[in-house]
From TrEMBL:
This is Solute carrier family 12 member 5b. Keywords: Cell membrane, Chloride, Glycoprotein, Ion transport, Membrane, Phosphoprotein, Potassium, Potassium transport, Symport, Transmembrane, Transmembrane helix, Transport. The chain crosses the membrane at residues 190-212, 259-276, 282-301, 417-437, 457-483, 562-580, 586-607, 619-644. It catalyses: K(+)(in) + chloride(in) = K(+)(out) + chloride(out). InterPro entries: AA-permease/SLC12A_dom, KCL_cotranspt, SLC12_C, SLC12A_fam. It comes from Lates calcarifer (Barramundi). Its main location: membrane. GO terms for biological process: cell volume homeostasis; chemical synaptic transmission; chloride ion homeostasis; potassium ion homeostasis; potassium ion import across plasma membrane.
Length: 1063
């Protein structure tokens, strides 16, 4: 029984499959006293055995009292792991979930002063709708919307708005489905994505969302400074813009933005650090500013229909003049019957006299004054319907107005006109506009504060998006219908006395909009600086990105101090960029990526039909989610293809980092679901038939033995398996434990842990399998029979050569080995038997030279060719050269054999030296006879040593009194061996055995002669005897065949071709 402290994740399946991340004050050092009964899972990590939230463990006395008289005695022993339904329901009903937002920090601060205030849960309006409205409406609406309509036209702008609003609406539908599929604790979109798509995607998207929110803070601050320096107090500029032209004026403006932006950022960070509760208290004030500003715009539109405001714009020919370039919109004026030149004349001429030398365009064109806001009934909409994209430095010209221009003459006095400050095009407008539809996650981020999150989140979010989309679309049409095109394209209101263009439309005064937008941008900036550090803290505390763990710490009340510092640092990057138009596409990327993954998560969960996918929100469909995902991806590349690639690169790097270095988390995510579905599909496909020779690869079942402590006895077997991994096949490491399943399950678990640990050490990617059987022989047989699944079964068995098999106590060991050889032959499995396995290299060793020698005596499907090729792919064997030896008999043409073998290897695309060894027939030597005889005598002795007591008595009774008796020393003293009539020492060896021994000795001589110095020798393993008589002799033959060789790999083919010359 293990209890865990702060912030422990409680698995929850009944109420929706997401973990209930119990985050009662991430902030304090208190411990959540939810003791849960834990067991060790297969990889040794603690895991809750119960999917529910268990009440605190009671002592036996309490338990007996608790269940006494409740008719529950029958289930008493299981109450620890399976709580009563009544206690479970009360635990779930009392479950409280505070967000990692700012509420609990506010309460933590209040706690210091007095008792904790009772928190009133919020409804749909206050909890979701209004926060979403506040987050969606923002700086772009006030500072760039009119300009976007002027540049893109009503038609183009409407398409942009519709596209962006559709994206957020589809994302909101997907988000509603995920948010209503169980309890969503704090962390909002990060929590939803990480629990739906797994820690890798969750971490990558969480960081993207964090960066998006941080850059949004920078954008709001830049908007705030732009309003301050251009519309409220232009004289406050440190770098004076007056008198500067072109790039110099632009640089001065950006430097002002940088200086003031840094000051405001520092101030805002300080406010957030000192106390979040002040930000929360001001939130409603900021929201009121936004709503009042929008209402003022609508009021102004209605007023234009009745009484259009007077906002004159002065044009020279068809070019818009700067307000500061003239005092009256005329070249000359009549004063006391005298013609006097104006400030405008002096701007274009070298003196104020009527016969002065003036700009050619000035002399050829008339000055006209037009109404900047002709009104909704004026029919100006038709003129503003289509786009008018401008190059940087181009003059704002009114359509349809005559202009006398000499195409050959250079443009002069351009600083007297309103000029385009950036080159504009459709995709740029998309990137700049998209941030004004973000903020749809505000409701789901507050899920812990809601009275009924599963009802409020969908209704509130979708209603907020509908409201804001309606406002945006109507604004596009109304701006186009009310305001003159040249005024719309005038980004900073330079042609209308430096007024905010949207302000010129507002009623009762432009200042309503100016101050309203100023306060709303301040508020949005503060909200971003409050939300982003908490999101980073949530990611840090999940522990999936190791290097971010430091940002999980904070002040005593949990304020994420370090995260706030990092956020301010990243925000400063946006401030240094200084241009609102450059920062907006950056955060568009990060938000679009986040929304794309929300849609992907919903689509995946729907298509996989996981049993746990039961959202309360029913109005979703996988096709809508895919459409939303496609729109997000398209918008990313439409906005800026290079920013999109950078954002994807960042997300990919984080994904791979978490995959390799991050914490292992099992969150029941959709990617795991995909893996299961894909694995099932692939396994079903494999069942359709055996693989083609070209697809054959060694799928190895490694049979290892464990000692009394359940540790693996031959770890180098796994090193060899790792060195064969170039085959990319399945690896199963199996062992057998003797006993019964009920009594020995713990030992089996321990053995499994030991196998997994060794596999991890040796970097063997595969599966471990432990079977419990009454004897090891049957256990090994079961592994060979049932290892693998469906078409993904092993086709090769690797088993170590039994050491000391000649010792009487190891008799059973080599019998088991021979049974494995027999079973693999019957099952048509290939067999690899490394001899002297302890002398094989570890994965860290490197051979700088040497040979891998293949002795190809009989053809067994090409295993002998394939194995050295796979070994040489590994760095241990890479520098070794391959040599192939084959044996020629008397009647073979060895020269032709060599040619054929070289051709065969050429077609196999294998580089190897080739040598044909001639073995002439020779007489069988006396040594061979003697060795065979000794072998057979030993076999007889070993056989008789293992007779049962009854058999031995029967043997003794059958013998005549004169029979010689042999005593053999064993551990238990002298053992009498009965002797048949034929004296053991007068035996004649079996002729078949003699022939086999002769072959083994001759081959061994040749192999020793040629391959004594080889790093590894591979040779064909002869088949076992068909009957069980003479199995000891078989072991002796193999021993003689490999005598004197350091590393030998005996190979038996599985009866099928494993290598082909065809492409």
């Amino acid at each position: 029984k293990v209890s865990r402290g702060t912030c422990r994740d409680l698995k929850e399946t009944q109420t929706g499959g997401h973990e209930l991340q119990q985050s009662t004050d991430w902030t304090k050092k208190n411990t959540v006293q939810n003791n849960s009964w834990l067991v060790l899972n297969r990889d040794g990590n603690p895991k809750e055995s119960s999917p529910f939230i268990n009440s605190s463990a009671a002592s036996d006395v309490e338990k007996s009292q608790q269940y006494d008289g409740k008719n529950m005695a029958l289930f008493e022993e299981e109450m620890d792991t399976s709580p009563m339904v009544s206690s479970l329901l009360s635990t779930l009903a009392n479950y409280s979930n505070l967000p990692t937002g700012s509420k609990e920090h506010e309460e933590a601060e209040n706690n210091e002063e007095g008792a904790r205030p009772s928190k009133k849960p919020l409804g749909t309006l206050m909890g979701v709708y209004l926060p979403c409205i506040q987050n969606i409406f923002g700086v772009i609406l006030f500072l760039r919307m009119t300009w976007m309509v002027g540049i893109g036209g009503v038609f183009g702008s409407f398409i942009i708005v519709f596209m962006c609003c559709s994206t957020t609406m589809l994302t909101a539908i997907s988000m509603s489905a995920i948010a209503t599929n169980g309890v969503v604790p704090a962390g909002g979109s990060y929590y939803m994505i990480s629990r739906s798509l797994g820690p890798e995607f969750g971490g990558a998207v969480g960081i993207c969302f964090y960066l998006g929110t941080t850059f949004a803070g920078a954008m709001y601050i830049l908007g705030c400074i732009e309003i301050l320096l251009i519309y409220i107090v232009p004289q406050a500029a440190i770098f004076k813009i007056e008198g500067l032209e072109g790039p110099e004026a632009e640089a001065a403006l950006l430097n002002n933005m940088r200086v003031y932006g840094t000051i405001v950022l520092s101030f805002m960070a300080l406010v957030v650090f000192v106390g979040v509760k002040y930000v929360n208290k001001l939130a409603l004030v900021f929201l009121a500013c936004v709503i009042l500003s929008i209402l003022a715009v609508y009021a102004g539109v209605i007023k234009t229909a009745i009484d259009p405001p007077v906002f004159p714009v002065c044009l020279l020919g068809n070019r818009t003049l700067l307000s500061k370039a003239y005092d009256v919109c005329a070249k000359v004026v009549e004063i006391d019957n005298e013609t006097v030149t104006t400030k405008l004349w002096r701007s274009f001429c070298d003196s104020d006299s009527l016969n002065a030398t003036c700009d050619e365009y000035f002399m050829n064109n008339n000055v006209t004054e037009i109404q900047g806001i002709p009104g909704v009934t004026s029919g100006i909409l038709a003129e503003n319907l289509f786009g008018n994209y401008l190059e940087k430095g181009m003059m704002l010209e009114k359509r349809g107005l005559a202009s006398d221009t000499d195409p050959d003459s250079p443009v002069t006095s351009s600083n007297r006109y309103v000029l385009a400050d950036i080159t504009s095009f459709f995709t740029l407008l998309v990137g700049i506009y998209f941030p004004s539809v973000t903020g749809i996650m505000a409701g789901s981020n507050r899920s812990g504060d809601l009275r009924d999150a599963q009802k409020s989140i969908p209704i509130g979010t979708i209603a907020a998006i509908t409201t804001t989309s309606t406002v945006y679309m109507s604004c596009v049409v109304l701006f186009g219908a009310c305001i003159e095109g040249v005024v719309l394209r005038d980004k900073f209101g330079e042609g209308v006395n430096g007024n905010l263009v949207i302000g010129t439309l507002a009623w009762p005064s432009p200042w309503v909009i100016v101050f309203g937008s100023f306060f709303s941008t301040c508020g949005a900036g503060l909200q971003s600086l409050t939300g982003a550090p908490r999101l980073l803290q949530a990611i840090s505390r999940d522990g999936i990105i190791p290097f971010l763990r430091v940002f999980g710490h904070g002040k005593a009340n949990g304020e994420p101090t370090w995260a706030l510092l990092l956020t301010a640092g990243i925000c400063e990057i946006g401030i240094i960029i200084a241009s609102l138009d450059s920062v907006a596409p950056i955060l568009s990327m990060f938000f679009l990526m986040c929304y794309m993954f929300v849609n992907l998560a919903c689509a995946l969960q729907t298509l996989l039909r996981t049993p746990n996918w039961r959202p309360r929100f029913k109005f979703y469909h996988w096709a809508l989610s895919f459409l939303g995902m496609s729109l997000c991806l398209s918008l990313m590349f439409i906005c800026s293809w290079y920013y999109a690639i950078v954002a994807m690169g960042i997300a990919t790097c984080i994904y791979k980092y978490i995959e390799f270095c991050g914490a292992e988390k099992e969150w029941g995510d959709g990617i795991r679901g995909i893996s299961l579905s894909a694995a099932r599909f692939a396994l079903m496909r494999l069942e359709e038939g055996p693989p083609h020779t070209k697809n054959w690869r060694p799928q190895i079942l490694v049979l290892v033995s464990v000692d009394g402590e359940q540790n693996v006895e031959q770890p180098r077997l796994l090193s060899l398996t790792n060195q064969l991994k170039a085959g990319k096949g399945l690896t199963i490491v199996g062992t057998a434990v003797q006993g019964t399943f009920l009594d020995n399950y713990t030992e089996a678990q321990k053995a499994d842990q030991s196998l997994r640990k060794l596999m991890e050490t040796e970097k063997v990617k595969g599966f471990s399998q432990v079977v419990i059987s009454s004897n090891l022989r049957d256990g090994t047989s079961h592994l060979i029979q049932v290892g693998g699944l469906g078409g993904l079964k092993h086709n090769t068995v690797m088993v170590s050569w039994p050491r000391n098999w000649k010792q009487p106590e190891c008799h059973q060991q080599f019998r088991n080995f021979i049974e494995v050889v027999r079973e693999t032959t019957v099952a048509s499995l290939a067999l690899l038997v490394p001899k002297n396995i302890s002398s094989y290299p570890s994965n860290g060793e490197r051979f700088t030279e040497g040979h891998i020698d293949v002795w190809w005596i009989v053809h067994d499907g090409g295993m002998l060719m394939l194995l050295p090729f796979l070994l040489r792919q590994h760095k241990v064997w890479r520098k070794c050269k391959m040599r192939i030896f084959t044996v020629a008999q008397m009647d073979d043409n060895s020269i032709q054999m060599k040619k054929d073998l070289i051709t065969f290897l050429y077609h196999l695309r294998i580089d190897a030296e080739v040598e044909v060894v001639e073995m002439h027939d020779s007489d069988i030597s006396a040594y061979t006879y003697e060795k065979t005889l000794v072998m057979e005598q030993r076999s007889q002795i070993l056989k008789q040593m293992h007779l049962t007591k009854n058999e031995m008595e029967r043997e003794v009774n059958q013998k005549r009194l004169g029979t010689r008796q042999i005593f053999v020393n064993t551990d238990k003293g002298k053992t009498l061996l009965a002797e048949p009539n034929k004296d053991l020492f007068n035996m004649k060896p079996n002729q078949t055995d003699v022939r086999r021994m002769h072959t083994a000795l001759r081959l061994n001589e040749v192999i020793i002669k040629k391959s004594k110095e080889a790093k590894l020798v591979l040779l064909n393993m002869p088949g076992p005897p068909r009957n069980r008589v003479g199995i000891e002799n078989y072991m002796e033959f193999l021993e003689v065949l490999t005598e004197g060789l350091n590393r030998v790999l005996l190979v038996r083919g599985g009866g099928r071709e494993v290598i082909t010359i065809y492409s």
